[in-house]
Specification:
Elements: E1 3-7, H1 11-23, E2 28-32
Parallel strand pairs: 1-2
Length: 46
């Protein structure tokens, strides 16, 4: 099993996780982020 580390919890990090899951459904993914809240699309906030 492969292990992945994603740094940054923004949309790019989440998109990266989705891409990894599409080719490796069993790999271990660790997300490191300093964001105090869950992911959200910043451009959609007016």
């Amino acid at each position: 099993m492969k292990k992945y580390v994603i740094i940054g919890g923004g949309i790019a990090g989440v998109s990266c996780i989705e891409g990894i899951r599409s080719v490796d459904p069993d790999g271990e993914i660790t997300l490191i982020s300093a964001e105090p809240v869950s992911n959200y699309g910043r451009p959609l906030i007016s």
